[in-house]
Amino acid sequence: MDLKKTNAPVNTITYDKRAIEQTTGNVYEAITIIAKRANQINSEIKKELIEKLEEFATYNDSLEEIFENKEQIEVSKFYEKLPKPHALAVQEWLEGKIYHRDTTK
User: Transcription as a keyword (predicted)?
Assistant: First the structure.
């Protein structure tokens, strides 16, 4: 997932309910699918962030010296400015990028 190329909004916006339920015909089913995708995106972002922050980890037992690493701060700020996982999931849903199927049919 390339988070830099997304056009998902950073702020909260109102979506048209008809646009969200258009694919499934049921707004609750659509929201459930979007929520599951948001959980997937969240775990991907978390894993990616932990991997990047591991590079800066220092394993000292002393609490006397805490170093502020400029690169670590920049990485953290980048991830703080990203759109939230639910916004990314809704954007993917509206663009038709989420595959879903009904297992009961």
Answer: yes
Q: Does any domain span residue 105?
A: no
Domain carrying residue 43: 13-58+66-95
Q: Which two tokens stand for residue 83?
A: 């759109």
Looking at the structure of the chain, the number of domains it has is 1
- Residue 2 inside a domain? The answer is no
Q: Which of 71, 73, 89 is nearest to 81 (CA)?
A: 73
Radius of gyration of the chain (CA): 18
Cα 18–chain centre separation: 24
3-state secondary structure 71-96: HHHHHHHHHHHCCCHHHHHHHHHHHC
Q: What is the pLDDT of residue 62?
A: 57
Q: pLDDT tens digit string along 64-86?
A: 555 667 888 888 888 888 999 99
